[in-house]
Design goal:
alpha/beta; six-stranded mixed β-sheet; two-stranded antiparallel ribbon; 12 strands; globular
Length: 407
């Protein structure tokens, strides 16, 4: 007998190809310890940019050490000011794929209660993006074995790994990393500040945009459902902030300006699973392109929001059914199968627990099926099948517009 209690199996194939800051996020950056202020491999909870500055991460320290840690954190709070984030600093020379097995790093992650989102920036670029993604997917899988569900991992897509020709870039869709996304968006103003920033990607900006959204919202949506108080009157939610001088234009993380990327090349980047930043012709502001994950485009979990929705439902269902573990299962005296009263009880508990996801518009609906042909006396897990009905995402419109003589 174990203490697993309730096993949730992830189903695939039903879709072919959804409350802000239910997300509990950590930003992992490269850096060095600061005596009396900052320890490596320790999780710090930040409620505002001043909390980072109090432990020695400042704009001045970024400049002196040729880092972008303060920049990434400031972007998180600029774009999602009514949230919180955790910070873990690891040595700069650490490879992303090494994080999954670092004996000091994993306990730091586990110390963050209810963690479900990870972003990584500022580590060595001495590693291919695919290897980094696969390493972090193994970390996600290891956590899932302990019923710690990670919705998304945002990794820095270093510009040094981008090919000059868009079509020559690696296909991220073949990596089989459905919980990992690579960010290739860059603010040219930041990149121009120092040569060492040439190949960075705006991971902090992407994490801020994710934290500002409900779990069912796409990272590239032009507007969000619940904007921060200071921006409630806006009709959209761009990365751009003219007063702060942020995201006045956009580039890939190799410095190639979005304005030089053709429509077919933009489509190719999407086909390859790249998340980048750009703008709509004739419309103000920069936006992220989408919420791709590093898996095939017809996979149910090819978008960040799909994982977030599944994980939220999994947590709810597991916590709902755990109190029934090792409780009595009523038996039909004639057949030896589960009595209908038990089925009705389990069904009702799960329905009541999942209904708020419909109310919150995370999902359109759900369905539950408990096979009544299961033996009441059994040492095997009882099977409950739950299907979630996801809402769609508008990726683009096609409009027929013309004249007529009369209406």
């Amino acid at each position: 007998m174990t203490f697993i209690g309730a096993q949730v199996n992830k189903l695939n194939g039903g879709l072919s190809g959804g409350q802000p800051s239910e997300r509990v996020a950590v930003l992992v950056v490269g850096g060095a310890a600061i005596a009396g202020k900052l320890e490596l491999y320790r999780a710090y909870e930040l409620l505002q940019i001043e909390d980072a500055e109090s432990i020695g991460i400042t704009a001045e320290s970024d400049s002196a050490n040729k880092l972008l840690s303060h920049y990434h954190i400031s972007e998180i709070f600029r774009l999602s000011p009514e949230t919180r984030v955790h910070l873990i600093v690891v040595p700069i020379a650490t490879k992303v794929s090494e994080l999954k097995s670092l004996p000091d790093f994993i306990p730091a992650l586990r110390s963050i209660e209810d963690i479900n989102t990870i972003a990584v920036a500022g580590l060595t670029d001495d590693e291919e993006a695919g290897i980094a993604a696969q390493g972090m997917q193994l970390l996600v899988d290891n956590f899932a074995n302990d019923f710690i569900y990670i919705d998304a991992v945002l990794l820095e897509g270093k510009g040094s790994y981008l090919a000059e020709s868009i079509s020559d870039n690696a296909d991220l869709r073949i990596l089989d990393c459905p919980n990992v996304s690579l960010i290739w968006a860059q603010d040219p103003t930041i990149a121009a500040q120092d040569i060492t920033y040439k190949y960075h990607a705006g991971v902090g900006s992407a994490l801020g945009m994710l934290l500002a959204r409900y779990v069912h919202e796409n990272l590239g949506s032009v507007d969000i459902e619940n904007k921060p108080r200071a921006r409630k009157a806006q009709q959209d939610y761009p990365l751009t902030d003219a007063r702060a001088g942020r995201w006045l234009s956009a580039a890939l993380s190799n410095g190639r300006l979005f304005s030089s990327i053709s429509g077919p090349d933009q489509k190719k980047l999407d086909e390859l699973g790249y998340i980048y930043a750009g703008y709509f012709p004739g419309y103000g502001g920069c936006f992220l392109s989408n919420s791709h994950t590093c898996t095939k485009s017809d996979d149910d979990y090819c978008y960040i929001e799909r994982n977030a929705i599944w994980n939220k439902a999994a947590r709810i269902v597991r916590n709902t059914l755990l109190p029934r573990v090792r409780s009595k299962v009523q038996s039909d005296a004639t057949t030896g199968l589960i009595r209908n009263t038990t089925i009705t009880d389990w069904d009702g508990r799960v329905r009541r627990a999942l209904e708020p996801m419909v109310t919150a518009r995370n999902i359109a609906d759900f369905d539950i099926f408990i096979n009544p042909k299961q033996a009441a006396i059994s040492d095997k897990p009882f099977n409950i099948r739950i299907q979630l009905v996801a809402d769609g995402i508008v990726h683009e419109f096609e409009i027929d517009l013309g004249f007529t003589k009369s209406i």
